Amino acid sequence: MEKQEILSKTTLFKKTLPYIKQEKKLFIITIILSIVISILSAVTPFITKRILDVYLPNYEYNMVAKALIVYGVIVFVTVITRYIYQYANQLTGMHIEKTVREKAIRKIDYLPVDYYSLEPDGKIVAKITSDSAGVRVFYTTLFSIFNALLNIIIVYVGVIVLEPRLALLIIVLVPILLLWITVYRKKVHKFYVDLRETGSKITGKLNELITGALIIQDFNQEEEMLDDYRALCKKYIHNERKANTVNIYFGWELLSLIKRTAEVCLLLFLGFQSIEVAEITISVGLVAAFVENLDKMINPVNAIFNNLNELEDSMVGATRVFLFIDEANDTRILDGKEAPKEIAGEVEFKNIRFAYVDDKYVLDDISLHVEAGKTIGIVGHTGSGKSSMMNLLLGYNDYQEGSLLVDGVDIKEYNKASYRKNLGIVLQTPALFAGTIKSNVTMERDCYSDEEIINVLKAVGAGYMLEKTDLGINMPISFRGENLSLGEKQLISFARILLRNPKILVLDEATANIDSETEEQIKKAMDVVSKGRTTFIIAHRLSTIKNADEIIVLDQGKIVGRGTHDTLYNNCKHYKDMYDSQFKNNNINCKNAD
Predict the structure, then answer these.
(1) What pTM, to 2 d.p., does this model score?
(2) Contact 507/426 with Cβ under 8 angstroms?
(3) d(CA 192, CA 316)
């Protein structure tokens, strides 16, 4: 069973209820307006009967005129009230969607890092946008169904007052309608689940195609990469066609058939009664009033039918966004005691064991003591555990065994939000945002002066960027920093760290994707930002950590060597092989260049 099918209407309503309570005033107004509309709808058939059975036969045209005026006023008031009702109902739904979307967006900050590696970006975006809109549609549709049912009940009460025995005819239709709606829902529900899931996959695939457009074009794989997208679109159309087929079989035509059958039964009943039951007065007004009431009961049923399509679709979307909001938070984001505002930076890994899945440990019995202010290089082949080790230090993941101490205190005692204020990270691929140099260096914090921002940019060697335009630190940066070189992006990342001034710094392959000339510039920036801090450098190019205070060599989650460059080169085979391999590759590249 799909995960989207787990939440029932009752569960979804319970999850939506807190958001409805936040819009209590609008909700109450909507209910009152709904009741007023239903009552007004039930009154007009009595006026119709009065005109046809009393005023017209007795030639009381002045009373006909007055009755028509009253009828017109009621219709006018009904139209105005229905407009206000629709406005209030839609406004309530929009407020609910806004609140749900804000909560879903805030959820991004509390999810564990692993979630983003398992869930495509496009699907996450779809959950926050289109699926949060599903909550609004779920509410408005559910309320519309409630309004239709209320209208049916009040109009039916009017039919009973009009002629109780005629009301029995309508009761016969109830089980038929209930059976019809039940069969319809079961048939159409699975198609809407598939439609919503496929639609989400289409969004995710589009995200992949857009973000990877350059690589796709470079390898001339446009048509091949579009095949998956076409297959998803084909599946979506197939499911939509099935849903439409169900709508045809169980839709308005069937409802019209039921309505016509009821009218035929009414005519037969009236004809029969006019002959056999003399005490029942069969009049034009009675027939007209009853048919008008019948229409006013059938139309809400039709509205319920039309809303069932949206209800099924919205239930899938609402389920997805609520399941997203209910995802388990990263542990201790805000729970636990506050970390010190300033730390020395002493770090100790004590017999750390860590696994992402079950007992498949990627770090096994890691022990390492680092004095405050020291620079530690971490090297190893792909999958050796370098990034996993730093993820534990940064609090992105929690270790299963051992302890990780900062200034002698296990970091699990702190809430992660306050603990991370003491840490900084520069990634292999710099994360820049559309805005300006200033907004990217300060990360939108307004507690820094322009002079401080300029100073850190100059300190890391990025001062020349301020001279590119007259805008200085207000120079625009495009989405993902596409108008900057990779080296310039990295320098802004270093300036961001220097301004924040953390006591523990992690440099994750900061020189992995840049040329040798830019590497020298980045190495100077690394020296600047690491000064006076406990620094961990995950190194791809071993030349960047030759001068580290200590180098740690990892292999299959274990420390297999530690010491200075010279010590490791002479005594650690893993390190020597990696260094010699890079040295030979560099020589080969130089010869090829010649």
Answers:
(1) 0.69
(2) yes
(3) 7
The residue type of 66 is: K
Q: Is 33 within 8 Å of 88 (Cβ atoms)?
A: yes
Segment (H or E) for 39: helix 24-50
Q: Helix %, strand %, coil % for the chain, to 5?
A: 70, 10, 20
What does the DSSP assignment read for 464-492? GGGGSSTTGGG-EE-GGGTTS-HHHHHHH
In the three-class reduction of DSSP (H, G, I as helix; E, B as strand; rest coil), residue 346 is classed as coil
Burial of 402 (0-12, 13-18, 19+ CB in 10 A): middle
Q: Write 83-92 long-range contacts (CB < 8 A, 24+).
A: 84/33, 85/30, 85/33, 85/34, 85/37, 85/147, 88/26, 88/29, 88/30, 88/33, 89/30, 89/140, 89/143, 89/144, 90/140, 91/26, 92/20, 92/23, 92/26, 92/27, 92/30, 92/139, 92/140
pLDDT: which is higher, 280 or 576: 576
Q: Find, among 442, 455, 583, 461, the residue nearest to 522 by Cα.
A: 461
Give tens-digit pLDDT for 326-376: 988 887 777 788 999 889 999 999 999 999 877 889 999 999 999 999 999
Distance CA 53, CA 436 (A): 78
Out of 170-174, 176-180, 340-344, 357-361, the most confident range is 340-344
3-state secondary structure of 101: helix
**Distance between CA atoms of 487 and 546, rounded to whole angstroms?**
21
- At 577-586, the pLDDT tens digits run 888 887 665 5
**Type of residue numbered 145:** I
User: Cβ contacts of residue 444 below 8 Å, gap of 6+?
Assistant: 435
The predicted-structure confidence for 408-451, as pLDDT tens digits, reads as follows: 999 999 988 889 889 988 887 788 888 899 999 998 888 889 99
349 bridge partner residues: 368, 404
Q: CA torsion angle for 361, 362, 366, 370 (degrees, to 10)?
A: -150
Q: Which residues contact 507 (CB under 8 A, 6 or more apart)?
A: 425, 426, 526, 530, 535, 536, 537, 538
Measured CA to CA, the distance from residue 550 to residue 110 in angstroms comes to 34
Q: CA of 594: how far to CAs of 520, 588, 590, in Å?
A: 22, 10, 6
* Distance (Å, whole) CA 545 – CA 136: 55
Alpha-carbon torsion 366, 367, 373, 376, what sign?
Answer: negative
Q: How far apart are CA 332 and CA 282, in angstroms?
A: 76
Q: Does residue 391 register a pLDDT over 70?
A: yes
Separation CA 90–CA 103 (nearest Å): 20
Burial bucket for residue 470 (CB in 10 Å: 0-12, 13-18, 19+): exposed
The residues facing 405 across adjacent strands are: 348, 410
